[in-house]
Amino acid sequence: MIWPSLLLVAALETVAVTTGQLDRSLKLPAEILPFEKVAITARVPGLVQSVEVDRGSRVKAGQLLIVLDAPEMKAQIAEAEAKARAIDAQKAEAAAKLSAAESTLERLKSASATPGAVAQNDVIQAQKTVDAAKALIQALESSAEAARASTATLRELQSYLKIAAPFDGVITARLVHPGALAGPNAGALLDLEQVARLRIVVAIPETDAASIPRGSRVMFTVPAWPGRTFSGAVARFASSLDPKTRTMPVELDASNADGALAPGMYAEVNWPVRRSRPSLFVPATAVVTTTESTFVIRVRDGKTERVPVTRGARQGDNVEIIGPLSAGDQVVKRASDEIR
What we know:
Blueprint: H1 4-11, E1 14-16, E2 18-20, E3 24-40, E4 46-51, E5 58-59, E6 64-69, H2 71-111, H3 120-159, E7 162-164, E8 169-174, E9 181-182, E10 190-205, E11 217-221, E12 230-237, E13 247-255, E14 266-273, E15 279-283, E16 288-289, E17 294-300, E18 303-308, E19 310-315, E20 318-322, E21 330-332
Antiparallel strand pairs: 1-21, 2-15, 3-10, 3-14, 4-6, 4-9, 5-8, 6-7, 8-10, 10-13, 11-12, 11-14, 12-13, 15-20, 16-17, 17-18, 19-20
């Protein structure tokens, strides 16, 4: 006698689980950013004397951008230099007194060789005079070094009155004009961006964040250039997911030698999805999704059993599945929640 359940199993159409390499790509939105961006500010207070560039100016590293004027700084440098010269004069005078004191000490020591010629107290006093003169010279030397250091610091600060570009790039904003007061707390003077190289920032879904290795070339397009395709190299992974979107920011490095691209543009990245090992595939009709779970129905030894799986990427009529299955397992081709 054939039991009804066995008749049902025999009537079900099954298909083998297959393996293969997933080959597909995602269309993902991306943002184009400058490779480097900086707000140019003044390190010392001063009045803007001249602005050598304007919005859109292309500059080289070290090129003069802004000249500031600070007359009080010149007075401070002159005062520091005068102080250093005064200390040097005092040191020269102290050196002369030391030489005279040492000469006196030597004569007294020579005379003291004759008993009763010189009182021993006079020799001691002469020695103390020499020691005091040496201490004074050391103190003046320390003061002179401090004065020289102060002068050097002021001269270095004076060099900051000429503001130069830290890297090659384009001035994207001019925020100041001659006569304006500039300083560390006065805000930015210029915005400088490096646009010869760009960062393409794309948010990759959690399941596909590790699907392509660093250094791989990825293609992308921009609405500003319809029909043209650009490319960038995968350079940096954030290594952390955004908890709201479950995506990982990834950066591509793209060359922009011809200036076709600009920071702020919207881009669409063609992100290839690859797996480190072959994936398991079944027909899309073999996967059942209910409010409780997602599963396929495996047929083994004339019996059906539900196997929980996770649905992956779709490839043609098949779908990638992740679960406790092996290649060659027989699953119901057209599964449903009613099959027991």
